């Protein structure tokens, strides 16, 4: 028993129970993120937590994928360009049934399929290796173009960080994708308004956000993309944006999703230093309580690493 | 001495990849706005729907190629060596080399012959860099014959390949139809006094040096390395044993290049003193081809001079 949750099997629009189902999956992703990072004593937290709702919506509602056949040729592609949030992707994949949930406890370990940053050569179901920022969108553009050249109905989704949008390659790809009218390419920017350290300034903890308010929306629009600006923690808005993105008009789509870094664990929310940091035992228990997950008083089980 | 000139390798690139695409629907060319120089325009004319212009944005271009490869396509990269190797090196490393993406990195304007463009366009450390990447074969064809055969081999091979191609016509070393054998070195001249090991278009000039040396009574054995990685260690060891003296000659830096590869192999398998002729940690500049060969000691005459002075010690 690996505890996998089935994908939505209804074609109808999301009703309240579907939204509740996805919210519960997002909560479980967050729980597995905290558990795995605590167990590994390494890994990122803030970004995985901000991306959890988006990943739940992708893997349990939007993507046409087959967990039991991860190399299915006609699957939709997903690239986590902000590869440092890998543990949230692994949690979503485990819950979806790509591999046993227990394997999450190997995260970051030697010989693990769940490397610190996604390594497509090790884990089936990863569509690209990422971690060096700015590259996922280029690879995604190649997939979207490749789908067209091979006449396959494949959609490509790429999740970027907002700090990642400081990489020049992102805008090289943004310009080129418009040229090729790739409306089967959807970029999702996890706009959690914090990067690892950032510039000194007036913001929380004395740091400024990676971009000024409205800057990302204006930039993607200026590069010719169709921009959908949403609350990245509101499941109904997320599903609505994915549905609207399917109606192609020749422009690639950028979903700018406003999120909160560390979302779901109040003492981590909006604090840049939780980008990556080991969790103390009392912090682990507090985080689990805040996520509504029982803490059994025992440390996470040991597994062979 | 009569020298038969080959055709420019960049023309061979455009024609050969176009011919490959006639038979293989998976073949595409990804261009960084230099198709009229690399002769990707020949491909574009034949297969306009499979010529993908990416503009002046090489990092994105290499990433797009990696994405195309995952969809079952076989992208050939069209740009200059300088802009295929160092500018997008991180994309090559993470998206192509590490995951063994089926991308053919086939730039031209390799070595010193770049049409008098100078230091920004001349890259001499591409062999050293590319051979250090995991899963990345490195091929440096001697002439048009070998370039065409190597490109055809690359199209059929599953996985990444780096092929350094040249801009200008250089002397032909192999007759048309001569097969390319991946990973195999070729003895192009038999000799007994000294072994000269070279790669790429330099092999023709090394052969020229061997003729000049013969006039002085020095019998040079010349080994051409078409595949720098994986290196044909057996052939290198055999060539070293034949004369006991090894000199490498390359149109590139001796730091980690062919000279480095040969020295590493002999150090491990048959310790032999190795001298390296090539660019020795120097800056480069623009100039006519013959002037550059003279300045950097790579013309047949200059190679022969250096071999004589090495042997005099």
Briefly say what this structure is.
Chain A is α/β, with parallel strands linked by helices. Chain A has helices at residues 16-40, 46-62, 86-96, 136-149, 168-179, 215-222, 235-245, 281-290; strands spanning 77-80, 156-161, 185-191, 226-231, 253-258. Chain B has 2 domains: 9-163, Thiamin diphosphate (ThDP)-binding fold, Pyr/PP domains (Rossmann fold, 3-Layer(aba) Sandwich), CATH 3.40.50.970; 186-312, Rossmann fold, CATH 3.40.50.920.
Q: Give me the CATH superfamily of the largest domain in chain B.
A: Thiamin diphosphate (ThDP)-binding fold, Pyr/PP domains
Radius of gyration of chain B: 19 Å
List unreliable stretches of 5+ residues of chain A.
Answer: none
> How far do the termini of chain A sit from each other?
21 Å
On the 0-100 scale, what is the average pLDDT of chain A? 93
Biggest sheet layout of chain A: 5 strands, parallel
| Global morphology of chain A | globular
DSSP strand (E) fraction of chain B? 15-25%
Cα end-to-end separation of chain B: 29 Å
How much of the sequence of chain A is in beta strands?
5-15%
- Greatest chain-chain interface? A-B, 35 and 31 residues
Enter the CATH topology name of the largest domain in chain B.
Answer: Rossmann fold
By CATH, the topology of chain A is Rossmann fold
CATH architecture of chain A: 3-Layer(aba) Sandwich
Shape of chain B: globular
- Summed over residues and divided by their number, the pLDDT of chain B gives a mean of 97
Can you offer a commentary on this structure?
With 305 residues, chain A is α/β, with parallel strands linked by helices. Chain A has one domain (17-290): Thiamin diphosphate (ThDP)-binding fold, Pyr/PP domains (Rossmann fold, 3-Layer(aba) Sandwich). Chain A is built from 8 helices and 5 strands; from the N terminus they run ααβααβαβαβαβα. In chain A, helix 1 packs across helix 2 (46-62), helix 1 (16-40) packs antiparallel against helix 8 and helix 2 (46-62) crosses helix 7 (235-245). The longest helix of chain A is centred in the N-terminal third of the chain and has 25 residues, at 16-40. The model of chain A has no long low-confidence stretch (mean pLDDT 93). Chain B is an alpha/beta fold and 313 residues long. Chain B has 2 domains: 9-163, 3-Layer(aba) Sandwich (Rossmann fold); 186-312, Rossmann fold (3-Layer(aba) Sandwich). Helices cover 41% and strands 16% of the residues of chain B. Chain B is built from 13 helices and 12 strands. Chain B has helices at 9-23, 35-38, 40-46, 58-70, 81-85, 89-97, 126-130, 144-156, 202-215, 233-243, 258-269, 289-295, 300-312; strands at residues 27-31, 51-53, 74-78, 104-105, 138-139, 161-163, 186-189, 194-198, 220-224, 227-229, 246-253, 274-279. At the A-B interface, helix 4 and helix 5 of A face helix 4 and helix 6 of B.
